[in-house]
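Supplementary notes for students who missed Thursday's class. We covered one full example, reproduced here. Read the sequence, then the structure, then the short commentary at the end.
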Amino acid sequence: MARMKEVTVQRVAVTGSSGFVGSHLVDELARRGLTVLALDLRPPRAELPPGARFAPCDVLAKTSLGRALQEFEADALVHLAARTDVAAGKGAPSVADYAANDRGVETVLDVLAKLPAIERAVLASTIRVWDRAAVPPSDLAFHATTAYGESKVAAEQLWRRRDGAGKTWLIVRPVTIWGPRMAEHYVHFLRLLRRGLYVHLGGPPLLKPLGYVENTVHQLACLLAAPHPAVHRRTFFLGDYPSVPLSLWASCFQTAMGAPPIRTLPLPLARLAARAGDTLGGLGLRRIPFDSTRLGNLTLAHGVDYAPIASLCGAPPLDLESGVQRTLAWLRDDATTTAWWRPRLPPAGDEPLASQSLGFASGSAWLGPRP
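Structure (token representation):
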């Protein structure tokens, strides 16, 4: 194939733009002066920034997706749209339930093949295509242990087999991404932490690949701007480097919130608690706080090679402490979370309750209403 000409990306279409990472990417690209088309089945979470506009779109609908991209005159596409829930065990979804992840990629490739104006295409995969502690020996090595991971393996294989529809293409594998606008189960974790109900697991410290979301979209923007030889047909893990112990990440939130000290639960006791949760789940109970799936996620180590992304983007712009503070500010200010994040207040005239039940302070600023 002839060498792709170098282009300066100016008009970027983002599928999955109303999701967690997608909404931040739209903001970041618009902040950098690019024109952005936000594509999603769901409307935007908030008013889009200047330079961005929204078009409702289903990535499984080839005609409407092609029309939207052609009318926008995109020169780059970032394909983030996907079903991303991760579950395992009895009653978990099968690969067939993740149609947006493999059939969606097929649709996107068919559309890209008919749009020569699009020069660069980015496929978002996941760290869960490689559920092993060792660093993957190549971009083509896979070991998925969930249906979600398997669906992303199929998406990557199809993307490579069709050579990204002849574009300058790359694949990104985000690690566990966190920050403002993150999913409810992450916020639930912080609520437990604030109440003193979260525990560290005993045993050696687990290095967990984590990425603060504003760092992640900075990396994506760098990849869109990088020269063709630096990115074409390559795979990049997206996250913060170096990885830190999960206990350190949790402790940073605990310190910033002024939450009770985090206790440590011996691993054998954690396994017993997980089995009890499995039993309750088998009886039909929902919202089990702890089971074998959650224990597995807490103890699963992933091998990640950050060298490729670090060579292009340098150090992440925000450190762990900054990410924690920005996340807590979002929890304090965002109307979609404050109603159930803020603590209950004591009746008028009563003394404030202990920090475990009332809330917490960061410096002199309460996260939530003052007593």
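Commentary. The longest strand covers residues 168-174. The radius of gyration is 22 Å. If anything here is unclear, bring it to office hours.
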